[in-house]
Please model this.
Amino acid sequence: MATPERSAETGNRPARPRRMAVWREQHAWCARASLQRLGTRPLGTLLTITVMGVALALPLTFWLLLGNVQRLGHSLGQDPAINVFMQPGTAQPVVEQTAASLRDRADVGSVRIKSPDDGMHELSSTQGFSQAFAALPDNPLPYVLVVTPRQGESEAATGQLVKVLKGMSQVDFVQDDGAWRQRLHAIVDLGQRGVGVLAVLLGLAALLVVGNSVRLDIQGRADEIAVLQLVGASRAFVRRPYLYAGLWYGLASGVLAVLVVLLLELTLAKPVAQLASSYAGGLPIQGLGWAELVWVPLAAAAMGWLGARLVSARMLRISI
Model:
């Protein structure tokens, strides 16, 4: 014989599935209703989505541009070697002795000797001046020491090494791209901070746009909201369609922002391909990946939901 406790438990067992089913039905109805409401005013909805989409596309474009600039800088300046040009006429034994003394330094990783013949062959094959160089009676190029700093050396240590190299005898000229790399890193860091500030400001603008649209919608349906509250509708039920409206605004604006950036990529595809081909395809220029295509609309949808939640909570609290 079943006990009363077991009978009560058996009787309440279907209650939870029924509540979940009702909860799902309410959310599905609110999602459809909010989408239908947006469709009843297509011009206002389109303007709101366009403003938000452009606001989100701007920081996304600058972020993509900065990423390519950073990769471009790493590609062009990935070789930290320092070219030490010896004085013309320096004998090979002197060059080898200088290279051996540099290899003994703790801040030097490796030293490679580039002979005048090696330099002539490199210039002839790279610049296409083989006939002009062949007409020269003598090889005017000096010995070059390609000095690679030890891995992990800081920019300051590399700069100190450059000063030491410039002060050595038999050294005519020292070529180092360290200053260029420092400027590039500073520009990229500044750009990243600027893009972050711009993203925050434009994201706040998108929140305000969603909030203002939801506020106007709530004010226009004040009588309907009052009737729902009189018949016992909870504040969460009344607010739910506006939350979905904010989510639709954000999702659509995120998709629009991605489409705008993809359109810009398509427009610039030809000149970018020409630029990459001029560097023998060695420029790692990238566009939006699959991750950005997914998280940008989702993040925009979450932002629209947040803006709608903040405004609807305040407006419904005032209306009660």
User: Anything to note?
Assistant: The two ends are 52 Å apart (CA to CA). The chain has two domains: 28-75+183-319, 80-176. Residues 1-12 have pLDDT under 50 and may be disordered.
